[in-house]
Amino acid sequence: MSNPLHRTRVKICGLTRPEDVDAAVAAGADALGFVLWPGSKRAIDEARLAELAARVPAFVTRVGLFVDQEASLIERASAHLDLLQFHGDESPAFCASFTRPWLKALRMRDDLDLHAMAEAYQGAQALLLDAYRPDMPGGTGKTFDWSRIPANLAKPVILAGGLTPANVAQAIRAVRPFAVDVSGGVERAPGIKDPHRIDDFLRQVFLAQSTDFLDKT
Ligand SMILES: O=C(O)c1ccccc1NCC(=O)[C@H](O)[C@H](O)COP(=O)(O)O
């Protein structure tokens, strides 16, 4: 994103509690992520999704996270979601088979060819890039080498993986992503967000792009 007027969008992920949804909305988050994969410490079930999604106001995007799950579950959950985020080995055709726009999450394993993935998943709204750990499909709390992200990728980038209030400004300057995505960096414990850290994260994003704007105009 080379436009100095671009506002880096923020997604707060792994929300499990009403008060955390409210805190993220109040802080100015653009999108909220709900993990529907039962293997996660941040997993919620469909009833909880319905409850949390109903609190989200207009113009804030409700994103559901899935890892190689049944189409029937994704279809039911879609009633409460604006966007789907796929973290497993889902094919492009599977991702595109629902009534919602979607993101493909990619873990930055050493041999990952991002240009090839952008081509394969060209139906995605964006690629969410996260750290690779063989035993975890997401939410690792780890950063990766941001210099591996090519500037000319054919899809918008959502930068994830180990972002915190302390490093998000540096990440934005290094990568210039469409959006940043955080989970562990704004938590007190897995699935339990800290409203002060959420505020601080949003503030750091705002400051990073404000100084960038002033530098360029
Ligand atoms: O959070 C999880 O437990 C999880 C489990 C399975 C798939 C995805 C999952 N989380 C994805 C994310 O929350 C985002 O990729 C996140 O921004 C990165 O997490 P973190 O490094 O903790 O900020």
TrEMBL record:
Database matches in Gene3D superfamilies: Aldolase class I (3.20.20.70)
Q: Which SUPFAM superfamilies match?
A: Ribulose-phoshate binding barrel (SSF51366)
Judged by the first EC level, this protein's enzyme class is isomerase
N-(5'phosphoribosyl) anthranilate isomerase (PRAI) domain spans which residues? Answer: 10-202
Q: Which UniProt keywords apply?
A: Amino-acid biosynthesis, Aromatic amino acid biosynthesis, Isomerase, Tryptophan biosynthesis
- InterPro entries of this UniProt entry? Aldolase_TIM (IPR013785), PRAI_dom (IPR001240), RibuloseP-bd_barrel (IPR011060), TrpF_fam (IPR044643)
**MF (Gene Ontology):** isomerase activity
Which is an annotated Pfam family here? PRAI
Family listed? Belongs to the TrpF family.
Stated name of the protein? N-(5'-phosphoribosyl)anthranilate isomerase
